[in-house]
Every structure is written in structure tokens, then in C-alpha cells.
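Run log, item B.
One chain of 170 residues. Sequence copied directly from the ordering sheet:
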Amino acid sequence: ELPGSNQTAPYVFVGDNAFPLTVNIMKPYPGIQEKGSQTRIFNYRLSRARRVSENVFGIMCSIFRSLRKPMLLQPETTRKVVMAIVYLHNFLRKESSNIYNPPGSFDIECLESGMITPGIWRRDASEQNSFINLRNMPRRSALHAQRVRDKFKDYFVTPEGEVPWQYQLC
């Protein structure tokens, strides 16, 4: 159930326009959305969620350099390595936050202006990224996937699902 409501929704991954819209992968509404519209608010909230994941993974890649290139390991060994990195990341964040990720590590968004100051991990990431950029592919998504996205869009403008700053920036 979505917090504060009795609406059910599936767990989803957040993605950008390079990914298809499916029941379990949410992507933004295409095009430029009207200022203050529900679709623009949805796109903003989705991008904020995606930025959290990007920050965490970016910091983990800058510290644990084995994540910067393909792991030539058996799938089960790869799973163990990644889980160990996640545990270490969480431990270091909790126990030594100013050493592991000093101020400026994460992207910072100014709520008044909406401007984003990139985290310091992004400097290294642009030079040593082993990921291939995916082209945006136009696709027709299933009606059920569109309904799931619409359910999240509608929820983000209810008293239970809204956040105060979403209207200032959208």
C-alpha cells in the first residue's frame, strides 16, 4: 500500500527515458510538461528518487573501484561481492560519515531555486565510467504500465503523497 492510503501499487525501479515503461519500471512522462501540472510533479519526484540512487552508486564506485568495470566472476561470487560492498557502504555511512563521504559528496538541491550542485563523486565518474550510454528508444508501453504510472502521479498530489517543496519547483 502507498503510505497513508489504502491504494496498492507494485514495487518499481526508477529509470529515465532510455528504459521502457513497464509495470515495474517507472520512467518520466515524455516531452515538456506544463508548469505545476501533475505530470511535471511526477517527473520531478521521479528524478529526485533517481538522483538518490545515482548518488549512492556514484559514491560506491568512487570508493570501491571494482564496480567501475565488468566483474569477471561467476554470478554467485559477483552477488557476494556486491552485497559486501553494500554492507560496507552502509556501515561506513553510519560510523564514519564525514570521512567516508565528506560534505559535498552528494548532489545538493536548493529548494528555493531548484538548482542542483553536483556531488564531488561526479568529477571522477565522468572520466572513468564503464557504462554504455543507452539511446532513448521510442516505445509504446502497455496500458497497464501507464495506469501504474498514473496511479503514482495521482498519489503525489494527494495530502498523503505530496511533499511541501514539490509545488515550488514544478
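Observations after the first pass:
- The chain is about 45% helix and 5% strand.
- Residues 38-63 form the longest helix (26 residues).
Flagged for discussion on Thursday.
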